[in-house]
Amino acid sequence: MIRTVSIVPAILTDNKVEYRAQVERINVFTRRVQIDVTDGIFAPNETLDVTNVWWPRNWEADLHLMAANPSESLDTILKLNPSLCILHAEANEDLLPTFKALKDAGIKVGVALLPSTFPGNVKQYIDAADHVLIFAGQPGVQGAPADLMQMEKIPLIRNMKPEVEIGWDGGANMTNIRALAHADLDVINVGSAIAQSENPAQTFQELVAEIDKNGVVL
Question: Which domains does the chain possess?
């Protein structure tokens, strides 16, 4: 039986004007959004930093922080108060103290795994997490092709923590959204397919309709 899958638009930009424009476009058709932030160290491309992002109060915001030392941004994250904060297992520091601080503040925690990271090697983070993000693109880049081999991580994570929310980030679009939706994921983050669309609301609805199809032909 297919799980209920959420399509979550992702915002990634280094421009304040474009950031606001994306927020306004997305706000028309959904309330859960992933905000991607890079530090220019963990990922080669630098976006708006965490002090410059914001979102409407009615959003369920997932803050995905691609940072080498995420604890340095802890005070800012706490002030932003996202619904979920996703940090990378490959960061240069132990994530568990930051996870604890976030949870103590009522913020759910997530761990993101780069393609080269085997879930079993970061079990301590998966055990502590509310969400595991399978990253299947390139950090700090929208529009990179999806590495669908990363779907092999899904059953490994499910076996470790059956109830955890599992998300996908990287290259999701109309050509692969059905395969991803039928792969036991809970969340599929969509970046460029929505952000670069001439009609983002229509594209979002088309993606939702596509994952609701059950048969091979339908």
Answer: 6-211 (3.20.20.70)
